[in-house]
Amino acid sequence: MASQSQGIQQLLQAEKRAAEKVAEARKRKTRRLRQAKEEAQAEIEQYRIGREREFQHKQHASLGSQGNLSTEVDHQTRKKIQSMQANYQSNRERVLRTLLSLVCDIKPEIHQNYRITA
Predict the structure, then answer these.
(1) Residue 107 burial by CB count (10 A; 0-12/13-18/19+): exposed, middle or buried?
(2) Helix (H, G, I), strand (E, B) or coil at 106
């Protein structure tokens, strides 16, 4: 009976050691998974930062050229407005005289299609 009790004790101790080993293996697995997840997060963050830098660079290059185009368009628009104002100032008197003469100087004439019927 003592050997049977001793065998049971050995089995219980072996089961306890096995349970401890399984628990330790689970802890190691959890640590490895956590570490892998942290490494993956760090890698993802590095990739995101790199893509963000690339995007900012392309955006700056694109907007920089658009900014130059916008400035050029503004400059050309100002030049055209100044040109139109100069034309207005130089031709204003002549156009007003022509309009007033056409409106005020009436020359009554019979239309060429009018037929006198008696």
Answers:
(1) exposed
(2) coil
Q: What is the pTM of this model?
A: 0.44
DSSP 75: H
Please, what sign has the CA dihedral across residues 11, 13, 16, 21?
A: negative
Render pLDDT for 22-41 as a digit per residue (tens, 0 to 9). 999 999 999 999 999 999 99
* Tokens, residue 57: 């660079």
* Cα 76 from Cα 70, distance rounded (Å): 10
Tokens 């050995």 correspond to what residue? 10
- Between CA 79 and CA 86 the distance in angstroms is 11
Number of CB atoms found within 10 A of residue 65's CB? 10
Encoded tokens for 30: 């959890």
Q: What's the pLDDT tens digit per position in 59-79?
A: 887 776 666 777 888 999 999
Distance CA 11, CA 7 (A): 6
